[in-house]
């Protein structure tokens, strides 16, 4: 069962996505900000990270850069999530190190496809 680290400072968003992902067979670990995300990326060894880009303490851009910089976590795929989908946001997330990007509100079917694609890509040598 693939493990997903879900990073979002909004409890309702974490709860909703956690339930939906668990119904699809994923093990979900939550984090509430970028610092928490970086720590859990190391301690939980997730197969993929869903990263909210707009958070207090440390935003998703900085957390993504930190995770991608560390040798132990650099190969974990990260999907950036943001409610502030404006021109250039996708490029900014990809430049920070995200492997893909989804705007909120999340199209769950599309998100699942992206998750599967990135997990398959990671497992292929």
Automatic annotation (TrEMBL):
Alphabetical list of InterPro entries matching this protein: CheY-like_superfamily (IPR011006), Sig_transdc_resp-reg_receiver (IPR001789)
Modified residues (4-aspartylphosphate): 52
Protein keywords: Phosphoprotein, Two-component regulatory system
Database matches in SUPFAM superfamilies: CheY-like
Pfam families: Response_reg (PF00072)
Residue ranges of every copy of the Response regulatory domain listed in the record: 3-119
Membrane spanning stretches: none
One of the protein's GO biological processes: phosphorelay signal transduction system
SMART domains xref list: REC
Listed Gene3D superfamilies: 3.40.50.2300
Annotated protein name in UniProt: Polar-differentiation response regulator DivK
PROSITE patterns: RESPONSE_REGULATORY
Domain of life: Bacteria
């Amino acid at each position: 069962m693939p493990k997903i680290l879900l990073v979002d400072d909004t409890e309702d968003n974490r709860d909703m996505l956690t339930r939906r992902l668990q119904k699809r067979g994923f093990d979900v670990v939550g984090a509430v900000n970028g610092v928490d995300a970086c720590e859990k990326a190391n301690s939980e060894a997730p197969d993929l990270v869903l990263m909210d880009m707009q958070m207090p303490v440390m935003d998703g851009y900085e957390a993504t850069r930190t995770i991608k910089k560390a040798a132990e976590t650099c190969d974990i795929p990260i999907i950036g999530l943001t409610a502030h989908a404006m021109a250039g946001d996708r490029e900014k997330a990809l430049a920070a190190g995200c492997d893909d990007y989804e705007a909120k509100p999340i199209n769950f079917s599309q998100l699942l496809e992206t998750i599967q694609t990135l997990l398959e890509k990671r497992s292929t040598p």
